[in-house]
Amino acid sequence: MCSKLILNSYKIVRKNITNIIILACFLFTGCSLAVPEPDEANQTLLIIPVESRQTLQKFIWTLHVSIEDSSSNEKHNHIIKPNPKSLFSYSTQLKPGKYKITKMIRKANPGFKLGGKKKRRPEKVSNLDDFELKKGGVTILNKKFLFQQPQSKLGNPPKRGQNQRKMTDHERNLEKIKRKKERKTDQEEMKKQRVRFVQIVDLDESFKTKLLEELKEVENYDKWK
Q1: Which residues form the domain of 211?
Q2: How many CB atoms lie within 10 A of CB 172?
Q3: Is residue 164 part of a domain?
Q4: Is residue 156 part of a domain?
Q5: Is 122 helix (H, G, I), strand (E, B) or coil?
Q6: Within-domain flag for 137
Q7: I want to staple 122 with a disulfide (CB 3.0 to 4.6 A). Which of 5, 53, 103, 195 is the partner?
Q8: DSSP secondary structure letter of residue 117
Q9: Closest to 89 in 3D by CA, of 58, 133, 51
Q10: Phi/psi zone of residue 8: left (φ > 0), alpha (ψ -120 to 50 degrees), beta?
Q11: Cβ-contact 86, 33 below 8 angstroms
Q12: Rounded CA gap, 155 and 162, in Å?
């Protein structure tokens, strides 16, 4: 009886260990970054160097850039998501040819808002050279997008119903007015930090070396010329 119980316990432990090993393999290999292999649907590979300096828990916006075909003037939208764990963004959706990045604009992620009352307009990009994409080839921009997000001292607003169940309508209204004043003060403080959210800066050798090392680990990258 005892030996049978020990045998069953051994089988359970061995099964659990096997499951843990399978899960670990999935986490470390299944989640690795990959780019598509070159084919008719993915004829070019554009690498956009990106450095994300994170001061908050997460970035609340993405950058939308307009890529224009120099010959046809056709515009293509590309979204760059700030990510401190990655040094680049990529696109395989452009046909071979010459292109230029002409405009960019920050857009808030769902559930968030960007400061300022004025309607946001795309910002012109003038400090990036034109680039050429070749069939089956890799093109790395000679500059990088630097993302920063100034630190806010204002905490998240209370969730709907939180700490407001025992409030009267008058108290809730006073709380909204108070929160509005705090938000305005916080925005002024963040302006004083003089942090630019997005900059296009030179691609220094140190960053370029790190980028090339990261690209070596990307699945299918070695299949592009």
Answers
A1: 45-49+57-142+205-223
A2: 11
A3: no
A4: no
A5: coil
A6: yes
A7: 103
A8: S
A9: 51
A10: alpha
A11: yes
A12: 14
Q: Which residue has better confidence, 9 or 146?
A: 146
- Over residues 90-118, the pLDDT tens digits come to 999 999 999 999 999 999 999 888 866 56
Residue 15 has pLDDT above 50, yes or no: no
Burial degree of 90 (CB within 10 A; 0-12, 13-18, 19+):
buried
From residue 71, give the alpha-carbon distance in Å to each of 89, 131, 213. Answer: 24, 12, 34
Residue 217, domain CATH: 2.60.40
Q: What is the spatial distance between Cα 190 and Cα 82, in angstroms, rounded to a whole number?
A: 19
Enumerate residues 6+ apart whose C-beta is below 8 A from 76. Answer: 66, 67, 68, 69, 93, 94
Instruction: Tell whether 107 is covered by a domain.
Output: yes
Which residue type sits at 189? E
Q: What's the average model confidence in pLDDT over 173-197?
A: 70
Place of tokens 């970054």: 33
Number of domains in the chain: 1
User: Does residue 63 have a pLDDT over 90?
Assistant: yes
Residues with Cβ within 8 Å of 106's Cβ and at least 6 positions away in sequence, in order, are 61, 62, 63, 64, 114, 120, 197, 198
